[in-house]
Batch of 2 targets.
Target 1
Amino acid sequence: MKYVLGLDQGTTSSRAILFDDKMHPAFIAQQEFEQIFPASGWVEHNPDDIWTTTLCTAKEVLDKAGISTSDIVSIGITNQRETTIIWDKNTGEPIYNAIVWQDRRTADICESLKDRNLEPEINLKTGLLLDPYFSGTKIKWLLDNIAGARENVDKLLFGTVDSFLIWKLTGGRSHLTDATNASRTMLYNIDKGCWDADICAMLDIPMNILPEVKDCAADFGSTDLLGSPIPIYGVAGDQQAATIGQACFKPGMMKSTYGTGCFALLNTGDELIHSKNRLLSTIAYQLDGKATYALEGSIFIAGAVVQWLRDGLKIINHASDSETLAINADEHHKLYMVPAFTGLGAPYWDAQCRGAIFGLTRSSGHEELCRAALESVGYQTRDLLEAMKKDIQHAQNTTLRVDGGMTSSNWAMQFLSDILDAPIDRPTITETTALGAAWLAGMRAGFYPDQGGFSDHWELDKNFAPNMDAPTRDKFYAGWQDAVSRTLSNR
């Protein structure tokens, strides 16, 4: 039996998954790692944790399967996007912790750029808005604030997590990234397909530290750290990898991933659409030198709100407990939880606001808090879909394909369908992020079929149809909009 090894480096854990010749996940290994919060709104990871958990899970999954590297056709990598690492190219040592995509420390840098009226140019070229979410201002912060960084910049390399892992896996031979990850840095011109010198100059970022950009299915080098050399043939940022894993290859197809955050992507084909409703234009994937574009809505806190119930409030022991408690909540006791722990993403883009709960009474309990937490994900998704409907006709009557840990909750998915008034399709294989990266690598190796064959492989597990009357839906959503308006920092 031959396999493709998918390395899925996420925000809270690293996973390694072996996919068999039918593209089914056969063996999985996973390790969580520490989340570091040095100050309010700051989120960091130790790059060594990112690397060691990735390498260890890769070794562990091979041991579980009882196979050697000769049984691995190729490696596909998918990763938490925008998270920023700068390291010494001679020693391989990072100059500082990885600054995570959720981090808000560069809000002042973004505001100063807005004050100079630079956001329109950045948006036109990169498809992105000026927000601490993206890598560009994180790079600037590291170069400006870490002792010796500016003075020794010729010795440094920048990378998002994929680039860092490729560099480590290849023993420093490959300083590469793919077009999807590059498109999330706020430094990449997604129309021309190159790093943008003007934006780099705005942020005082030397272009020599940036990686070379390749297609999603390409030769990224090989690694011999697991045994005999294995080629790395597939790379995509996690949300684009999930779009691929959901076989959303046709314009108008849409997926939404519910992990730490929630990210909805709508395929717009070869048409680069600039949102008028504060969504993002991005590269969905790039194959054979041709970019396919998407509109994206980004929610910073989705599954993380359940993690907060477990680790912060300690009102549940396991994530799955939230569903049981939500089902038992008082239906007449309406709470709204706005989980702006690190600000709000699309379509609000408010880096300064923080989380809030509205409607608390003496009888509010664990059940009501869990229900409000799960409902917040549905409400935020509707915010995204409403914006998409204003931007593009494709979004009017689309079926949403969902994936990620939260989709295992039937209650949460039914509420999502109800509040969106749209059908929800959950696939049989929910490991769509790793699957997307694995398909890229396996397809490049000639082991997996082309797009058509892969689309035929997609299988439905369960469809959720809306079952809420319009007055109730509108009343619930109006309450959410009121709660958000009270939470925004600039209200």
Note: The chain has two domains: 3-238, 246-427+459-491.
Target 2
Amino acid sequence: MTICHPHNLRRPVYSSKPFGIRVSLPPGDPFARLVGADWEKTHWFATERERDEALTEMSRRYPFFRIGDEPALVFEPIRKGS
């Protein structure tokens, strides 16, 4: 898809986003019964810094969790081609 007016973009368009975060479920997670044991989502970033900042934000304990709740996702930094 082409961009009609690239000057209107809030941030630059990167054609290559080699840095990623793979999000998956830990083994035995009950949520896997709903989405499947092989569920995963990958987020791609143009720079390693962007990826690392997003990884920190995604893996932190959110303030609205109940006492004792912990994130039940596995976050893995990845890079295309390696």
Note: Residues 16-60+71-79 form one domain.
